[in-house]
Amino acid sequence: MNLTQSVWLSIKLNYELIMIPKLGSCYYPEHWPEEQWQKDAEDMMKSGLLWVRIGEFAWSRIEPEEGVFNFDWLDRAISILGSAGLNIVMSTPTATPPRWVVDKWPDMLIVDAEGRARQSGSRRHYCFSHEGYLGEAARITEIIAKRYGGNSFIKAWQLDNEYGCHDTTLSYSESALKAFRVWASKKYKTIEHLNKSWKNVFWSMEYNDFDQIQLPNLTVTDPNPIHSLDFKRFSSDQVIKFNRSQSNVLREYTKKPLIHNYMGRITDFDHYEVGKDLDIASWDSYPLGFLEDRSDQSDEFKSKFMRFGDPDFQSFHHDLYRAVGSGRWWVMEQQPGPVNWAPYNPEPAEGAVRLWTWEAIAHGAEVVSYFRWRQAPFAQEQMHAGLNRPDGVRAPGLDEASRVFSELKEFGSIDQVQSKVALVFDYESCWAWEVMPQGRDFSYFELVYDYYRALRSLGLSIDIVPPNESDLSGYKVVLMPGLMHIGSQLESAIKGFDGVVISGPRTGSKTLDMSIPSSLPPEVPGIHATVARVETLRPKALITIKDHGHFKKWMETLVDCDNVIEFCDDGRPAIIGDEKNLYFAGWADQDTLRRIIIDICVNQGISVTELNDCVRIRETLTHRFWFNFSEEESTVGSIKVPASGVFWEML
Ligand code: GAL
């Protein structure tokens, strides 16, 4: 048995033991009178929400002044919740350092690219590089871990809250500057080596000493792209280090799984690397907020899906975080009603909360936990719905959650299976193309997401894999658009792979030092061609592909190609390669991607189902789930997918 198959088998066995998915909610005992806790706990249990996450913002109530602790209320809350039968996720409160911590360490604040300190008064105001805060975070973690590490009601731990949210990974503080110099000196050893790798001869940027290096902000025009890329690599490493310092402390006091709640479309740090120090990945899924706030789709699209969210956005993250958690993942926060933070905050369609929950479950979520149990009538999030209204009356989301609970009891366990299609997602490529987009709207996330959408619109289930994947066995098609550099592990996996590899545009187009490879791109195994030139295109400028379809945004002029499969109208190669390796010369539209993927799937014996843009499919080991992101019933062949609903069939 090869590695991939054995990993999947162990995940499956694991699931068989534990895998009847559960529901939960996020609760803030410190926000409510103590007399209410007991009833809340009982109501959660009655509603089928068996997990409860607490504590992630409670530092000022746990330690109101340095060294002065008040655990009584938390002891009682844990005891009430746990005695009611709830499984508790306890959190470290380090995303909200109280004011006294900031007074103690005034220079711990994160600094933006304009050099301004981002003030306390909300949350996530710390700089990952501040050693004093790192120590402070480890200290409070240890105190909480010591007290509750052995508590039998606590079944898992969450570290911090949403690393990187509110644009908080990169910091241009003095601490970051000092740490970056140390990081660079460790990486390059000598300043000569750094100068050579960064090619600092350009514009006389050569240094004599690591202490002369500044952060890549406030420069007159663009800083050296490798300077910026290395700063992003460094900033990601600081998140890993911060997380590791907490996980090391927690592991001394508890054997319970450690979890972080990642966010949607936050790519400033390498989640795969952070995930290596944790047991379970989770993410916070706000479909309507993300559609309004984080989507590049048109206004028309946003209006169409305003009550469901983009049908591919949630599943993309489910698949991504399944990879980050090496198979184990949750939704830690699920949108239950309108949020407060997007430009527009509509109500979900009736049935959407159930739909989102079932979709997460079909993609392998072990737990789906709603944010939050009850809407707070005060402070920043008073306009954010909960499962209950501020006066305690049930809100519509709670009925939908309870319905899923009843359905799950009938359904039993849900086992995942390796997909036939793998899509590589690489954080470093995100950073590289942010540093050097070449065209205003070039986004690596969007490029990969376009491929993902095309695959999903054909009814395919997808595994997202990291860029250092070393075993592709079990897959039949692997896609790696825009991957800046193919590392040696992936390269040898590709060489031994007997399915089809799809790459381009921009795949294998930079060295790790962010230069153009001397033999010119693409450096992709099995592709014999040279990128002679590239151009980026204005939003409405399209390049027509002869056989049908268009390229947008990005176009490469390929020369010396062994085999051209399709040409553009202007005579340039559009798609090159052979039956095992395909390379796209530009950013293909959905029609083109779908057309090519259908051909490949037919050749590989993978069945495809062409879906309209509201219907999506996910296959598990035993079932095919159909999801309908619209308020009309949808018919696909003999299947009727109910409006705002889910339909499942045995395979
Ligand atoms: C998340 C966060 C929660 C809450 C929620 C509101 O990003 O983790 O604490 O703020 O958003 O939607």
Task: Provide the descriptors you would attach to this structure in a database record.
18% strand, binds beta-D-galactopyranose, 651 residues, alpha/beta, seven-stranded mixed sheet, single chain
In a few lines, what is going on in this structure?
With 651 residues, the chain is of the alpha/beta class. Helix 2 (37-47) packs parallel to helix 4 (72-83), helix 6 packs parallel to helix 9 (225-253) and helix 7 crosses helix 9.
Task: Walk me through what this model shows.
- With 651 residues, the protein is an alpha/beta fold.
- Helices cover 34% and strands 18% of the residues.
- It contains 19 helices and 24 strands.
- The protein has an eight-stranded parallel beta barrel with strand order 1-2-3-4-5-6-7-8, surrounded by five helices. The protein has a seven-stranded mixed β-sheet with strand order 10-9-11-12-18-17-16.
- Strand 5, helix 10 and strand 6 (280-285) form a beta-alpha-beta unit.
- Helix 7 packs across helix 8 and helix 7 (174-188) crosses helix 9.
- The radius of gyration is 25 Å and the shape is globular.
- It starts with a helix and ends with a strand.
- 51% of the residues are buried.
- Residues 11-17 have low confidence and may be disordered.
- Beta-D-galactopyranose is lined by residues 161-162, 165, 284, 286, 333, 339, 341, 371, 381, 384.
